[in-house]
Structures are given as C-alpha cells and as structure tokens.
Design a protein that fits this description.
This protein is of the alpha/beta class. It has one domain: Vaccinia Virus protein VP39 (Rossmann fold, 3-Layer(aba) Sandwich).
Length: 272
C-alpha cells in the first residue's frame, strides 16, 4: 500500500520496541535539520569529507552507485550526504517509523531530490538477493545484540552487492563522551545501544561471499572542528586528519563487497 509517497510493506506485529524512535523523530523539526545541512553543504568537499566518514571511504574506494538503499534511515541524512558528495545517484530510504520517512521525504525535497521511501522491517527486507548495488546504515546495528544482530546484518548483506556501515565503536572516546553527555544532559537520547568493537563489526560483515573493501572511523576532534567551522570560516581551511585523531575515534566504518570473480583484481584495505 502506498500512502503520501511512502510504500508501506510492513506485516502485522508488535512494534512497541520501536516507539522510542517514533517519539524521538517527532520531536525534531524537518526545517531545523534542513537548515543545518543547507549550511554544511555550502562548505567545500574537502572539509565535508574530513567529517563525514562513509562518503570519505566511498570516495577512497571509487564507489559511485547508481542506486543505494539506506536501512533505518531516520531523516536520510547519510544518504543525502552521500548523494551530495557523488557516491550515490538514486536513493531508497527504509525505516520502521512512518514519521521518520515523511520527514525524510520533506527533507530531501528541500534539496531538490526525491527519494523512494519504504516502511518495512529490517529483519525481512522486501528485496531480492543482490538486488541493491549499495546499502548503507548509520547508527543501526548497535541497537541489536547477539543472534538478532547477526540476523539483521545477514539480511542486509543478502540484498546487497556492496555495503557501507557506520556504528558507534566501543572505544575509550565513546565511553567518556557517553558518560559526560549523560551526566550533563541527564540522559542518553539514543535509547538502548551497545557499541560494537572493530573485531565484532568485521566478524558480522566479512563473511562469504563478502570481503573487506576498506575501513575508516569518525572521531571527536573532527566533530569539534565541524562545529567550529559552522561558526568561523577560517576553521574550514583545516581538513587534514592527523593519525592522532584515531585515539579519539567514536564510530567505526566498514565497507564490504561481494567477492570478485576469480582472476579479478582485489580491492585493497584503505585505512583512514
């Protein structure tokens, strides 16, 4: 069934576990999010790529997908940023939250882009095997643990030929940031969340027929530089990420792809 530009392919069931996200999305104004990205998208590609890890890794790998699917899209900001930086052309957005999808469609249209929006469950994606050239997710799989986490990642890979995934990494920087934020704001806004170690992330995605294409990270100094750059133009001149920033990594990013045919050149690991 299609409603308001959103294709609804969700079966009957108990989705109370997702109520937190429906409530959180409804608390934000689409216009506020759009104003933030309108400012950022006026910055140079070099400065944006020093902050946004998934587009940076996609560019290093030379990935430019004609079609991409974002799972658990929220406002679709990951997809819109990848589109802005030339990593994807046509965008599909999938989420359990109708409010998030409606907001995402409005958000995209402000930038002159019309996505395909689908309400569906990530446990059972409504796509054929290998039907999507690229799937992406940002801040999704840390909300699942154990066998369920393995199952939803496997379902992601089933429909994909290439995958980009960014999750909070279980690092010292993450835990310090989370505890300080919780203390200052009297709570953590992202609900149930278990950060993922790099070894765990690799074990989830690097399974036959998928091979590691590359890895990267998002860090707190780059995030601070983006906040400074939004206020003062001089800060946007600095785009280098010193290796020291790795000690302050907050998110891990992985790229995997289906194994190339025998005899094809292998894709190198391109650490950030």
């Amino acid at each position: 069934m299609e409603e308001g530009g959103i294709l609804r392919l969700i079966p009957r069931g108990d989705y109370s576990r997702y109520a937190h996200w429906e409530k959180m999305h409804s608390a934000y104004s689409t216009e506020f999010i759009a104003a933030l990205y309108r400012r950022r998208f006026a910055f140079s590609d070099a400065f944006l790529l020093s902050y946004y890890a998934m587009p940076r890794l996609a560019r290093k790998l030379g990935w430019n997908a004609e079609e991409s699917l974002e799972l658990g899209c929220q406002w679709g900001s990951n997809s819109l940023t990848l589109h802005r930086l030339g990593a994807t052309q046509r965008v599909w957005l999938l989420d359990i939250s109708v409010h998030a999808l409606k907001s995402a469609v409005r958000f995209f249209r402000i930038f002159g882009v019309t996505p395909y929006a689908i309400q569906a469950e990530i446990h059972q994606l409504p796509f054929k095997d290998s039907s999507m050239e690229l799937t992406i997710s940002g801040g999704l799989y840390e909300h699942f643990v154990g066998e369920e986490q393995e199952q939803v990642v496997a379902e992601n890979c089933r429909v994909s030929r290439k995958v980009l995934c960014q999750v909070p990494e279980s690092s010292a920087a993450y835990w310090i940031y989370r505890r300080l934020y919780t203390l200052l704001k009297s709570g953590w806004p992202f609900g149930f969340e278990v950060p993922v170690s790099w070894s765990r992330l690799r074990s989830l995605f690097v399974r036959k027929p998928f091979v590691l294409a590359g890895r990267d990270w998002h860090d707190l100094p780059s995030a601070a530089r983006m906040l400074i750059g939004e206020r003062w133009a001089w800060a946007r001149m600095f785009t280098v990420r010193p290796i020291l920033f790795y000690l302050f990594r907050h998110d891990a990013v992985i790229a995997v792809e289906r194994h190339a045919p025998r005899g094809a050149a292998s894709t190198p690991d391109v650490g950030g």
